[in-house]
Every structure is written in structure tokens, then in C-alpha cells.
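Recall that a protein's primary structure is simply its ordered list of amino acids. Everything else, from secondary elements to tertiary packing, is in principle encoded there. The following example makes that idea concrete.
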Amino acid sequence: MERKIMSKQTLLDFSMKYGKVHIDPIDEVHDGNWTKFKRLFFYHNEEYYYVNVSPRLGLISMMDIVSQARNWFVIQFDDESYYLCSKEELIFNNNL
């Protein structure tokens, strides 16, 4: 079954709605000076919203999030899953 997109919004807009970005400690990788990760989450109104990072973005750091919040998008699918991707990936993949 193919998932349908329910919404697309920039990471900045998503964080303004759902609050502070948190790193999922299960997916942390310590790489020199930065902790990098492949999943992040938001805690809002006593619910967790987990956002998987696109494999094309690879492992990202909090510095990446700060610098790319306007250029990265959070896609919400009809199965209530969330996916973080770049603007280029969003344009390249018509199914996203």
C-alpha cells in the first residue's frame, strides 16, 4: 500500500508549531565535535512526534538543523509517520 502525503512544511514551520527539536538518543553517533543522528522528535501536548531523516541527508547534527531549517521539509504521511528531506529531494521525487 502506498502512503499518501497529508502535509508538507519547512522544518522551521514544523518546529514553530510543535516546539523544540530533540535528538533521538537511540540513533546518536558521536563524530568528533558533533553528535549526529538519523531521527529527531518533538514533544507537544503530551505526544511524541518522531521524524525520520532521509537517507539522502545521512546523519545530521543540530548545527545542520539550525542552518537548514528553512530549506528542509517535514512530510507527514497518512499513516501518521513523518520524514525529513531536503528541498531538492522533495522536487526530485514527485511522490514526496
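Helices lie at 11-18, 62-68, 87-92. The first helix runs from residue 11 to 18.
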